[in-house]
Design a protein that fits this description.
The complex is a heterodimer.
Chain A: E1 2-7, H1 9-18, E2 34-40, H2 47-50, H3 59-63, H4 68-72, H5 76-84, E3 100-109, E4 113-121, E5 138-144, H6 152-155, E6 190-196, E7 201-207, E8 211-212, E9 219-227, E10 230-238, E11 253-261, E12 271-273, E13 276-280, E14 286-290
Parallel strand pairs in A: 3-14, 13-14
Antiparallel strand pairs in A: 1-9, 2-3, 2-12, 3-4, 4-10, 5-6, 5-11, 6-7, 7-8, 9-10, 11-12, 11-13
Chain B: H1 2-22, H2 30-54, H3 58-61, H4 65-75, H5 91-95, H6 100-110, H7 112-119, H8 125-145, H9 149-152, H10 167-178, H11 183-186, H12 200-203
The chains are: A mainly beta, B mainly alpha.
Chain lengths: 291, 204
């Protein structure tokens, strides 16, 4: 068993300084309901593509308010297979790349912290050159409050995915994810948490006018392990943090999406979920109940 | 002088023929004339209709290389050409109205294509591609104005069980019904390649 653990240094210092007990994830995750979420290999499908009717037939229903999941949640595997093979919107197919990943998401909270657990079967390696040699796997989730980011409520992470961002064909290597009219001051941003397997490090950032990977105050820790071919990553996050952290309140729901960079991938070569909702003691696709 | 005589003779013959046509028959009964007229009418109509229908076949459409080499191979890759039920919609099924009046209007419109054929408007693949958007827009407009009449010869919302459709189709069709949309609003390019220079306005 390969086990990796990383506790955010800042959070540890905070916990020690304040004398509070370290946050504890549910002792028995088996009793926490799991939501099945498939993540597809998205190819080159930035927000500009999904909103363009001449390219994406669903642009019309999207404009009318439908969610991506509303049309596609039952065919994620098929979409992934079509794209990863180069059949559609993938100009540089990677032979052997997984078409999709089936993950389970569990959520709970204790009034102070939100606990998110992601589990999935490690896909077979493609054998292609490693894009991120340091990190075989990375997993990130994003939260958004109040539908302030355009299409966040319908498309999950896609609101931050643009055709001119790095790794997109012909894009600037230094251009990160961003959101339209992104502004922390105006609340137009995604809260972003990521865990990287090789570095064994948790990142607490956000995506506004650009992506910032560090500086957040909500993420307490992220722990990941690979056991018998199954990854399990648990994030512990304070319900409220600081700038760039979405403040989570019981009774509310938040826009939620996540992505896995499998097979030492970077940028767009990840597997990504459609948009879902996370409820804190509230009805949603994924519900975090108080333990 | 001889030319004048010829002209004069021709005019006289024409006058006699016109006079004969105007003169009531004294040799044939009205019944005979009606019967002959009726039979001749049937023969004429049959001939006209046969000729009309001969132009209403896939064979006729692809007898021109402009169709055979460009849009026909694209159509052969689509579900309207080959599908699990073995039902095929051929060129005229989609592009020519079935009702006689609409059909005649369409045929008269299509007669312009003869001129295009003569002057070679789309007689090379390059010329066809250059004209594809214009041609497609013409047909999209015709179908839109006709409320996708030719599609509806086979398809209708009344007989569509959206519950049996895949999630994506179900959502789209339920929305289309609510918004009183017509088939061609969404199904552009269902049997042929979409023009590469198609604009967002073409989609909206």
């Amino acid at each position: 068993m390969k086990k990796m653990m990383m506790t955010g240094v800042a959070s540890a210092v905070f916990a020690l300084a304040t004398g509070t007990a370290m946050a504890a994830a549910p002792a028995n995750w088996g009793s926490v309901p799991a939501t099945d979420v498939d993540l597809l290999y998205p190819g080159v499908s930035p927000i500009e593509w999904i909103t363009k009717g001449t390219e994406h037939g669903g642009a019309r229903v999207l404009r009318r308010g439908e969610t991506c999941a509303g049309c596609h949640s039952e065919e994620i595997g098929d979409m992934g297979r079509l794209i990863v093979s180069g059949g559609k919107i993938e100009p540089t197919p990677i032979p052997g790349k997984a078409a999709f990943i089936s993950a389970k998401v569990q959520a709970a909270h204790d009034g102070d912290n939100l606990y998110l657990r992601f589990t999935w079967q490690q896909p077979e390696a493609s054998g292609a050159p490693k894009m991120d040699a340091d990190n075989p796997v990375k997993i990130a989730y994003m939260l958004e409050a109040g539908d302030k980011v355009e299409l966040a409520g319908q498309s999950g992470c896609w609101g931050s995915c643009h055709g001119d961002a790095r790794t997109m064909p012909g894009a600037d290597d230094n251009k990160t994810k961003y959101v339209k009219d992104g502004s922390l001051a105006n609340g137009v941003f995604y809260d972003l948490n990521q865990w990287r397997s090789g570095e064994n490090k948790a990142y607490d950032g956000y995506v506004a006018d650009q992506r910032v990977m560090e500086g957040g105050q909500a993420l307490v820790s992220a722990e990941g392990q690979l056991e018998n071919g199954t990854w399990s990553v648990v994030f512990t996050r304070k319900l409220t943090g600081g700038e760039g952290d979405v403040a989570l309140e019981p009774g509310n729901t938040y826009n939620f999406g996540f992505a896995i960079h499998d097979d030492s991938a970077i940028g767009r070569y990840h597997h990504v979920s459609l948009g879902y909702t996370l409820g804190i003691d509230a009805d949603a696709d994924i519900v975090a109940k108080k333990q | 002088m001889a030319e004048q005589d010829n002209n004069s003779t021709g005019t006289t013959r024409l006058s006699r023929l016109m006079a004969a046509l105007r003169r009531p028959s004294v040799h044939y009964s009205l019944a005979s004339l009606l019967l002959v007229g009726f039979v001749a009418g049937i023969i004429f109509w049959g001939g006209f209709n046969t000729a009309l229908e001969a132009t209403n076949t896939e064979e006729f459409c692809i007898s021109c290389h402009e169709m055979r080499d460009n849009v026909y191979p694209e159509y052969q890759e689509t579900i309207h050409y080959s599908n699990r039920t073995g039902v095929r919609a051929t060129c005229p099924d989609c592009h020519v109205p079935k009702e006689w009046g609409y059909k005649m209007v369409r045929k008269v419109q299509a007669s312009r294509e003869l001129w295009g054929k003569m002057v070679g408007t789309i007689d090379t693949p390059e010329k066809f591609e250059a004209k594809r958007l214009t041609l497609a827009r013409n047909e999209w407009k015709r179908m839109k104005n006709a409320d996708s009449r030719e599609c509806r010869n086979c398809h209708s919302f009344d007989s569509m069980d959206t519950e049996k459709q895949k999630q994506r189709g179900r959502k789209q069709h339920e929305m289309a019904i609510e918004d009183n949309m017509t088939c061609i609003d969404c199904h552009k390019g269902i049997a042929h390649k979409l023009p590469e220079d198609m604009t967002d306005e073409d989609w909206d």
